[in-house]
């Protein structure tokens, strides 16, 4: 354990660079989001810098945007998370590998098996970003006429996580005997079938893969609505998010931790790592110029596409230089809509200004020198706004290299970030306990969160 | 193109060794089926030997067998195919990677995306073994009370393959513009949504990943019933199978090719590679002894478990030394049941003898020296019994090494097997054409099978 609290850093790598102007930035690889070579290079650099994890978002439809925006999207083609992360597991040794998987459009048996397999292949480095899939177009790709209600999605998600963790516990850690003499390979008394019958899911079990090295891959969540926060409080070990300000982060963090306390979960079993767009340069001016250049590369059509998708509502035919109209509730994600609506209300932004904000990343950004950003990050850590960040790079490869070559050494100098990995697994990097097996508890089991899920 | 016809060789690697005594064989790694290290070593050796492909079966339940058999199964824990093959894609360059995926228990959008991703990550080396999942226990893991009817499974499979190949065709091969100057990344006129509405599936599309390097990953099938053969004739480019004799293989091969002719498909667009269990040694006696040793390591409980699962019917409480009772039709796979019933009828085997046959691999086996096996394989090739084999190794690593060190060089000496890969993709290894895009056909499209699916 480190002497004082340290930052945890994830790298948000799908899209490789989230900013819609990223691929046009001078010196950027326009193809980075779909280049195995850039992904391999990036993860090796991130591992060299001792990042906690490489994070892959996932979407189950072309992003819901009009053609004019779609044609400008550099993330229109992307790798699928399990296949990419498995390939990258073979060329890395320590860095965590977090894959996004949907509880709305997949089956718990598949999800449990794939994450267990990734965890075994990587020696305990897997994490599951549990999403309920806010994009309404996804439903049309999975046989539904329309999207499931927001709260129903979260109800199903809760049950889904319970089933998946139960499936991971199918085999006791010591189930495998492998006695060639007697011919006994596995002790059948050390295998458990969950036989789950719930409102959304029926799953018999057992899973046909040994318990993951981490017990369970790390559970990650990014929901921000009350239902999303509640699910996170009940199940998440890492929360990603996109708070617009340090104050918003602090109150989110406090809210989730009080929800945890209310259900008897120890607050120390959670790491909150909000998304942070980082532009670092040798001077503040240079950093601001870079950000401005990037933002200038966001095409209006692209910005309005991002805005529509965040609002869950099409504002393309309103006056770009007028105010945002009234936006109705939809069943898509709520938090992004609220962020945009608040921005419009509080700063009086026009649709054109909102479109640029949406297309150029509207969450929190650190723009400055290594020193100024390290100061800010330290403030986030010390005032309990977060436990670190899920870093979003402005472009690939240069924007990532500058974070690694300039910012990380400064954080290390201050003792805010590790110089070496202390452990081997993602749980160890994050300082999270290994869950015990709910069906095969150790002899003197102390009550931990494991048993409360 | 080679001067005369050559063998194609796949390696059946999940289970790493299919024989239920394999893990107990002297010198075998009892953990081979679930050892990344053995998998990595195996695939590198197979690539060194220029095998066409590494093949991963997949099952969606613990095999349906009684506890007494289950506890003796070295395949009770296995890697999931996409994760393992993606990891192995990173440590190999040429060998094909065939993953099994079920059309009964998965969604076409997921399957299309994962295979496309694996094909991109591996530079065009992916293949899809299309299965309908015969194991009735799988249904219980996916929310169903009972298994879908055999023929309904195949109806759905046909539609599923059509949807998946349609999703692969979502982007024209030249859709990506990536013009940083104008900010146009993709040409929207070169993206197509299938908008499929069929009896089993509704899928809007488009897929959010570029068309695979191979156009479509190679379509593989292993069904053996009339419905299975018909699906293969309509869609498969490679057929695996488990014929018990060369005559059975020849008639199967002829049957499928006549089904192809009946629907206007060119017979040369199919490779038939039946499973072949290969035990090679320096003398015939030694080879026979090895096989006998292996078979002696099959525990009766394990054999009866395999037999029950092949029959889709539990015969455990019948007299082991009596005849096989009447076996009713079930909705599980038909061909395995028929094989066992015929074996009992034709050779008058008792339940105990059938159990040993089931547990020790009941399909065709080549047991002998490099010369005798090469003679036999040549006969299969020259008499149109098959286009090669899906090799099953008796144990890992020694049994695999002997095939590579003894048999392959003999096949190469005879000009029956490549000494170097001529192409880069699995299609190229197999001599199969790259399908054109059904929505974006080349200007002077010749009618090929692509358009007939
Ligand atoms: C950093 C971050 C990453 C996310 N990644 C994904 C993703 O990969 N796939 C997805 O469907 N949603 C993703 N989301 C969306 C969330 O899962 C969630 O739907 C959204 O934050 C809205 O929250 P709510 O559903 O609780 O309203 C992400 C959100 C954030 C902040
Ligand atoms: C070599 C070989 C490999 C197979 N691999 C799988 C597999 O991985 N998963 C699966 O569910 N079925 C697998 N099967 C079973 C077939 O898909 C099919 O269900 C079986 O041959 C019965 O055929 P039928 O369903 O047409 O009667 C395999 C069969 C063979 C011969």
Automatic annotation (TrEMBL), chains A, B:
- SUPFAM superfamilies per the record? Bacterial luciferase-like (SSF51679)
Task: Show the GO MF annotations.
Answer: monooxygenase activity
Tell me what this protein is called.
FMN-dependent oxidoreductase (Nitrilotriacetate monooxygenase family)
Organism, by scientific name, is Paraburkholderia silvatlantica
Q: Which UniProt keywords apply?
A: Flavoprotein, FMN, Monooxygenase, Oxidoreductase
InterPro entries, A to Z: Diverse_substr_monoxygenases, Luciferase-like_dom, Luciferase-like_sf, NTA_MOA
Alphabetical list of Pfam families matching this protein: Bac_luciferase
Stretches assigned to the Luciferase-like domain: 27-383
Q: Which family does it belong to?
A: Belongs to the NtaA/SnaA/DszA monooxygenase family.
């Amino acid at each position: 354990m480190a002497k004082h609290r340290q930052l945890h850093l994830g790298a948000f790598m799908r899209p490789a660079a989230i900013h819609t102007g990223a691929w046009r930035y001078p010196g950027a690889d326009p193809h980075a989001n779909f280049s195995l070579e850039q992904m391999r290079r990036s993860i090796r650099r991130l591992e060299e810098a001792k990042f906690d994890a490489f994070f892959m978002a996932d979407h189950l439809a072309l992003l819901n945007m009009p053609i004019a925006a779609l044609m400008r999207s550099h993330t229109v083609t992307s790798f699928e998370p399990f296949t990419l992360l498995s390939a990258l597991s073979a060329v890395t040794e320590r860095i965590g590998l977090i894959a996004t998987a949907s509880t709305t459009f997949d089956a718990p048996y598949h999800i449990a098996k794939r994450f267990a397999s990734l965890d075994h292949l990587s020696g305990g480095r897997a994490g599951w970003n549990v999403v309920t899939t806010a994009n309404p177009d996804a439903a049309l790709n999975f046989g539904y006429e329309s999207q499931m209600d927001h709260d129903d999605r979260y109800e199903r998600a809760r049950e889904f996580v319970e089933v998946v963790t139960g499936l991971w516990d199918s085999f006791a850690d010591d189930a495998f005997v492998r006695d060639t003499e007697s011919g006994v390979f596995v002790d059948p008394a050390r295998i458990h079938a969950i036989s789950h019958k719930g409102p959304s899911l029926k799953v018999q079990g057992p899973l046909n893969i040994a318990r993951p090295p981490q017990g369970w891959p790390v559970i990650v969540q990014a929901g921000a609505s009350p239902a999303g926060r509640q699910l996170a409080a009940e199940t998440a070990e890492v929360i990603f998010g996109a708070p617009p300000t340090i104050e918003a982060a602090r109150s989110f963090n406090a809210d989730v931790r009080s929800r945890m306390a209310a259900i008897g979960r120890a607050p120390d079993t959670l790491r909150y790592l909000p998304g942070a767009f980082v532009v670092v340069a040798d001077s503040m001016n240079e950093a601001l110029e870079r950000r401005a250049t990037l933002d200038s590369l966001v095409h209006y059509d692209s910005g309005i596409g991002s805005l529509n998708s965040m609002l869950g509502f099409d504002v393309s035919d309103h006056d770009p230089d007028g105010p945002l109209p009234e936006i109705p509730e939809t069943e898509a994600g709520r938090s992004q809509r609220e962020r945009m609506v608040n921005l419009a209300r509080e700063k009086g932004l026009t649709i054109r200004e909102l479109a640029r904000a949406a297309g150029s990343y509207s969450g929190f950004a650190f723009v400055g020198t290594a020193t100024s950003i390290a100061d800010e990050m330290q403030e986030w850590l010390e005032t309990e706004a977060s436990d670190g960040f899920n870093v979003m790079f402005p472009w690939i490869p240069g924007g990532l290299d500058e974070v690694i070559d300039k910012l990380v050494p400064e954080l290390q100098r201050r003792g805010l970030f590790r110089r070496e990995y202390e452990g081997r697994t993602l749980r160890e990097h994050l300082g999270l306990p290994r869950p015990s097996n709910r069906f095969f508890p150790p002899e003197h089991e102390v009550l931990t969160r494991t048993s409360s899920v």
